[in-house]
Structures are given as structure tokens and as C-alpha cells.
Amino acid sequence: MSSTADHTDPFTPPRPEQARAQRVYPSLFRIAERHAATDGQRSRQTHPSVLAPHEAVRLVTFLLSGAALPDEGEPEVDHADVTAALSLVPLVRAEWDELEVSLLRMARGRGMTWPEIAFGLGLGTPQAARQRYERLAGRTATEGEAEGA
Q1: How far apart are the first and last CA of the chain?
Q2: What is the C-alpha separation between 104 and 96, in angstroms, rounded?
């Protein structure tokens, strides 16, 4: 059975991860159109004079891949730059985990159900969404406690 038939066959359940993947660009467009349409709105996302860790990792990645070109006179990305970016990855991942836990808590606080959250995350079941939340909440609590000790 082809993937086209899978979408129209009423007896084949949709693949949640595929449905989520199809929402990525429309999701970016929606948020950009509604919340980042002006320079002022976009400037809320970054500190005007300090590079955030996720921005540093993305910048090095973009320069290495050719998705961004270096300015005239800017040095090429070297091994030390890559090592520096790799060194930031755990921090970026921890920050992302904290952001995701916060978003999940706020979603629940706004009345979203686990099935709705599972749909947004591209997960197949509400139980999977709740387990993801519990895993992330446990990991961020553990990391936070370790930092405070």
C-alpha cells in the first residue's frame, strides 16, 4: 500500500510523527506571522549584545554547512570553534528540556488534554505525552538539584 493510500484509507491509523513533521513549516510560519512579524517582535528572542548558547551552536553549524556565509574578513570555522559549539550542546539541551517542561505545564494549566498535547508533539498516545513530560520533569528537577548542591 502506498503512502498516499495510507492517508485516504479509513482503516489505517495516521502516523503521528509523520503528521507532526508535516506541521513543522506551517508551525514556524504561523508563529513568525503572529509573533515575529516586526523587527521589535523578533528582537524579543535574543539579547542585543550577547550570543545565547543555542544561537552559538546554530551559527557554527550554519557556517560549517554553508547555510550561512562568513562576512568578509571573518575567520573560517576551525576545530576550536567546533569544540566550543559541542561544549555548549549539553547546556542547550538542558535549556530546551526546561523550556519543553514549562510549555507542557502551561499547556496543562490552560486546559489542554494529554491527547491534544500528544497530537502537538506528534506522539501516538496521551500516555506517551504524559510519560515524556514525567521523564523531562524528572530530568530537569535532578539537574536543577545537582546545580544547587
Answers
A1: 56
A2: 12
DSSP 92-137: HHHHHHHHHHHHHHHHHHTT--HHHHHHHHT-S-HHHHHHHHHHHH
SS3 48: coil
pLDDT in tens, 56-90: 898 999 999 999 888 898 999 999 999 999 999 99
Counting Cα atoms < 13 Å in the Cβ hemisphere of 117 gives 22
- Cα dihedral: 89, 95, 96, 100 (round 10): 160
Return d(Cα 69, Cα 63) in angstroms, integer: 6
**How many Å apart are CA 48 and CA 39, to the nearest integer?**
12
